[in-house]
Design goal:
Endonuclease III, domain 1; 2 domains; 58% helix; globular; DNA-binding
DNA sequence: CACCAGGAATGTA
DNA sequence: TACATTCATGGT
């Protein structure tokens, strides 16, 4: 790999947090719903919304058939509920093409699925990649605000746009679902532990003294 | 009280 | 391509 910075960062994070193998959800569809609900929203608020779906969490058959007013009522704590209700309906309609069947989705090529998701209302690049990686175990790297900040700061000149940074990570790391999964998880875990807390970045494995690593 | 959180769509220049 | 605005709750 041309640039070893990423491997170095990964190692430090891994030593601190280990193999997380991530996404706090019980089912693939819960990942899909969570990926939409967490758009520009604190995860704690997403949890409240998920709890409102009931014991089994969000299910595609329910989201597809429930009335809009009831859906907005359920997801209200996650914010942007009018938009996100539309988005949930939309991404669920995409999943319905595959009969809500994970195996059927996984028969298709990653890039085809990514294209379909990106043309789905409410699904941008980060949400698409989160769904592909964490719901369907497909090897695509997720870039989020934490990742951008980490690069800008470290510094790792991975580019400016989403697609540039994504390409940089994928080109400078061995391709693999487990690695992509855990690397993004580690970045989020580190950001949540250290970002905007006092003392700033004490004990941060990236040793930068925040506003820095996260 | 201001600021922000695991974004995306839409509009302007 | 590059920004600005809108969407909205809840924690700090």
């Amino acid at each position: 790999m041309a640039d070893k910075k990423l491997a170095s960062i990964y190692k430090k994070l891994f030593c601190r947090y280990g193999d997380l193998q991530w996404w706090p959800a019980r089912t693939p569809y819960e990942v899909i719903a969570g990926a939409v609900l967490t758009q520009n929203t604190a995860w704690t608020n997403v949890e409240k919304a998920i709890i409102n779906f009931g014991e089994d969490g969000p299910e595609p058959e329910f989201v597809a058939s429930v009335r809009m007013s009831k859906l907005t009522d359920i997801i209200r704590p996650a914010g942007f509920f009018n938009q996100k209700a539309v988005y949930l309906k939309s991404v669920t309609k995409w999943f319905e093409r595959y009969d809500y069947d994970v195996r059927k989705v996984k028969r298709e090529p990653l890039e085809k699925l990514r294209g379909e998701l990106l043309s789905t209302k409410g699904v941008g690049p980060e949400t698409a990649d989160s769904i592909l990686l964490y719901a369907f175990d497909l090897p695509t790297f997720v870039i989020d605000a934490y990742t951008m900040r980490l690069c800008g700061r470290y510094p790792v000149d991975a580019g400016k746009t989403y697609s540039q940074v994504k390409a940089y990570f994928e080109d400078n790391l061995p391709k693999g679902v487990e690695l992509y999964n855990n690397f993004h998880a580690l970045i989020v875990a580190n950001a949540k532990e250290h970002c905007r807390k006092k003392p700033l970045c004490a004990g941060c494995p990236l040793e930068r003294g925040c506003k820095c690593c996260c």
